[in-house]
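The freezer alarm interrupted the setup, so I double-checked each line after restarting. Inputs confirmed:
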Amino acid sequence: MRIGIIGGSGYTGVELLRLLCVRDDVDVVFVSSRAQAGNPVCQLFPSLRGHVDLKFSNPDDVSDTPCDLVFFATPNGTAMTQAAALLEKGVKIIDLSADFRLKDIATWEKWYGWSHASAHLVEEAVYGLPELFRDKISSARLVANPGCYPTAVQLGFLPLLEAGIVDTQSLIADAKSGITGAGRGASVPNLLAEAADSFKAYAVAGHRHLPEIEQGLNIMANGNVNLTFTPHLLPVIRGIHATLYARLNTQADLQSLFEKRYENEPFVDVLPAGSHPETRSVRGTNMCRLAVHQPQDRDTAVVLAVEDNLVKGAAGQAVQNMNLMLGLPETTGLLHPAMMP
Amino acid sequence: MRIGIIGGSGYTGVELLRLLCVRDDVDVVFVSSRAQAGNPVCQLFPSLRGHVDLKFSNPDDVSDTPCDLVFFATPNGTAMTQAAALLEKGVKIIDLSADFRLKDIATWEKWYGWSHASAHLVEEAVYGLPELFRDKISSARLVANPGCYPTAVQLGFLPLLEAGIVDTQSLIADAKSGITGAGRGASVPNLLAEAADSFKAYAVAGHRHLPEIEQGLNIMANGNVNLTFTPHLLPVIRGIHATLYARLNTQADLQSLFEKRYENEPFVDVLPAGSHPETRSVRGTNMCRLAVHQPQDRDTAVVLAVEDNLVKGAAGQAVQNMNLMLGLPETTGLLHPAMMP
Amino acid sequence: MRIGIIGGSGYTGVELLRLLCVRDDVDVVFVSSRAQAGNPVCQLFPSLRGHVDLKFSNPDDVSDTPCDLVFFATPNGTAMTQAAALLEKGVKIIDLSADFRLKDIATWEKWYGWSHASAHLVEEAVYGLPELFRDKISSARLVANPGCYPTAVQLGFLPLLEAGIVDTQSLIADAKSGITGAGRGASVPNLLAEAADSFKAYAVAGHRHLPEIEQGLNIMANGNVNLTFTPHLLPVIRGIHATLYARLNTQADLQSLFEKRYENEPFVDVLPAGSHPETRSVRGTNMCRLAVHQPQDRDTAVVLAVEDNLVKGAAGQAVQNMNLMLGLPETTGLLHPAMMP
Amino acid sequence: MRIGIIGGSGYTGVELLRLLCVRDDVDVVFVSSRAQAGNPVCQLFPSLRGHVDLKFSNPDDVSDTPCDLVFFATPNGTAMTQAAALLEKGVKIIDLSADFRLKDIATWEKWYGWSHASAHLVEEAVYGLPELFRDKISSARLVANPGCYPTAVQLGFLPLLEAGIVDTQSLIADAKSGITGAGRGASVPNLLAEAADSFKAYAVAGHRHLPEIEQGLNIMANGNVNLTFTPHLLPVIRGIHATLYARLNTQADLQSLFEKRYENEPFVDVLPAGSHPETRSVRGTNMCRLAVHQPQDRDTAVVLAVEDNLVKGAAGQAVQNMNLMLGLPETTGLLHPAMMP
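Predicted 3D structure, all chains:
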């Protein structure tokens, strides 16, 4: 299988390369980057020395390279202008940006600030959360890979909402992300000197992942939910921890509920009762680890969900989707344990 | 004024020394530590070289040293056995441990696991949160210095509860603490190799600060509140960030409410609307910085509160209380800006 | 092939498990730990959930378990008391501790403070640095796996000493190690609160790795060298950076010298001229990356060497040695790229 | 005394403000920044809320503001174009950039890449290392504040070179700096995601601080020294650790030598024999802590020197120089202990 990566100089790009370069069943035939065109990939990412011999291609030069599937690891706004032409050539697409995530065009345009360039493809695009849409993903031409926060938050609320046992109007997601979530761009607030040994919330008034998460929760709840979503910046490289709060309107065995819902999911691990997952336990892996609590036996369920924002929250889930779309075993290349410590 | 510190080898002990050693109006006459007795203080804490010439005293040797005020920077369970004798000698006491924080003895004994050795002093003890009890503190003989989490959480909820505009039965405090909150004891989970570049919740089923916080919130709300309190461990040295959620049952100008409530408080700083306080902005200082949001103009207020867990959350607040108890200006020795970056 | 791990609850133990659990050609049949006996391995190391189903065995119960090879990931002093019995049963041994590293018994006893319990095996033991002793390792029964600092320092000096172009009496190794080098024991100085956001040298007066390094350098130089070795503690989890200084007594093309010496070595990567290797570029991998400089064209060569102290500096090199001893391809299971960022 | 700060939006600027804002004897009358002109200082640096009420001035608007002394906290190349005009008005100058540090114009132009705009002032400028040039500083109009690395390296070598007991042709300075040394500019390599949990050398081929250091060492040695200087990037916010190597050509009591040389220096602290200074022990302070070793009683002296790169390595030393130039007690405002932990 021939794979292309458009926009390979950011963190999701290098992570796709890390996951794919050791595989025999897929071959990365190009990695494009306008800024890095002509430079060896392993000059920018020395970790790939001996693993990736490619140079970055100019994005304008790759459109005729035959491919089975292309990843867009580009900023928002790029995939929507190029997707149609690729699909016409029979190339499958996984878009790691937000261009095809929201089904409501008006909502997308409000939060992202552009006119949508491929509104006609939005309906066709499948939201790439395998735990919800595995079958659709398997037969899709165009997959919108979920955001990092949305993956953790949706997987954490899913069993509660499907079971219909919580108040859907007072959901809270207090989420914390490692700094790679902010991307590889030069920025003063993301300097080590500014962000290390400190912690803060950001975008409390409104974050683009809010409508994406609510869209998914609405499907699970079969109705409109109301979510308060508060993102925070962790002084760690990778990792998301979502702490989720929902008021129970029915008593239930929460531990069993979670274990049953996810018993066949290869990348969702429900921890034993009383556990507290650590982000490092999933570092570098495609696993989402969950624990569910009901503190003091009161009426609030507390779900703890961890993932690696660059893997299950981005490139790893994209590879999981690629495996499904190409008819490969879903877990191929994604089963290594985390490095710990 | 002559000051003694009982239990000076931990993080609150060295922080008391850092704050007091540069002052001319008070004199630290002893610092005790059973484990370190006889060793120079600045051998254990080289940062104090040139500032503190004391050796650690054996705790058994200090009871006759004349003092105006003694700090207990000891583990829970020590102050309650020694307080009565000191008070009889006319020595004022600030206890940084939890021994005198809870008014309900049964609740204390349930959460701390001992019989209380000085139940008769519990009623007299004043809870040392100046923003609530300034006058009582000024005339107190025995002050129970608040816990680190309780300080941030109570200051954040205070204006909302006093105003009576939120549902008191669904309060949520999602709190994150730097690792010095766990103390200076040797411990595998607190090793840099275990805690760095990672993040987790802990004690979700129940943390000793829950009853302390609820006791304070009950006073503010003039009734029983219901709080879900989730502590998390941050890979930073100092700093607490509390993210607080309360459902509004009345519309109000939250920004004005907070600004008015705290306009005369020297150590509570309400940030401009739309702000996100960083823990580093209060590092090493006695300041608590707050911001209040109402995301998407929905019905949930989100309060962001930061403090240095060792200063406003422990030693700094203790010094603020000392200033009040000794009739000194409340802000003496506590007005330096944070080091940033 | 059946593999046993004696002493599996420390950092080298879990790292051996991480590297071996994904392999089909070897089978870990037991992991022992006196302190953890009976507990599931993945309870202590949740990163191994789904990968390792073993419980820790009591060390007293494993001596009769048939094995092809046993790793000792124990503190110094254990392997030397158990090695002889295992060898007699035909079990091959790789000792990750220091028991068999020094050929001179008196030197060992001086630096480690015990009488050596298996002096008769010291001569037979092969020092497990494949770049120097590959053939001997392949046929060895007992391999002494090198220390973390010694691996980086020896690989960095090797081309210079073999070429005979530097003054051997003024060698300097300024080495910096991540904190996992100190092991998994509870300790105040290694707490995140003590070691983060700081840096220091330690053991400047004398570190146990000094005689081990000098023994190796003597072989390369075919004579007695004089090394000043200064270890420092980095506030990072993994990684060693050795900065090596040697005075040139002959001009030479250093870049070519290094590239030629290591051109066939799978786990030594000489970077292009002018490079500065980062420890993160080898995180989690068995690679040692080197760069050589001659600043200002003066007479001092500066070699920069990085490795992951737990992989090429411990468990990874042990697996490389295991591959050699068992006749497996040397690089099996050791070829994944580093996670970066 | 009226003080101006030109270029106040970087790390040395905010550090000057932190140190000066609490003082009664000096008054900061303006802080300029072209990029931030018009913005409140405490909007950029919330740590200064309540301490600094100034807005950033446009640099073009401050030339007529009467001042006793002006700090240049600007990038290299600015002070040399503005110094002459200020001196003519009788304003004293402390330049924290490199414009006036090197006495040899040709050397300056080679390393900094410009023609020097005020060559006639270079001779007059006094190098602001009080331990070497206290008297000259006290009467200077123009002080060139030393670089961060040069301060630590020079203070560490000083006693050895003045005593004439080491080989001056084989000096080595292996230096490690916290990331604030790289300034506050947006930059990919200095992102937390790139620099945390890693370590590397940089500029091994040649760093601008090399000629500055050698200029100072030449004075101490009364002849030309030969230094190999290797800077490294530490994943910490503040702090420099210099590890210095010199071959002894005469036996001496090194501990006494250091203690005597610095016994009257308020900001150099020689630790007891056998010590290892930690960078955190001087965090936020103007202290340089030193330890001297002679490992294995061989012929190499190893000096360990720590300082805060933004204080003794920049703004603190500048304030020390200001005190001297204005006739104030040298230690004013610089005597607080470090925050530890």
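Quick read of the result. The domain at 148-309 of chain C is CATH 3.30.360.10 (Dihydrodipicolinate Reductase; domain 2).
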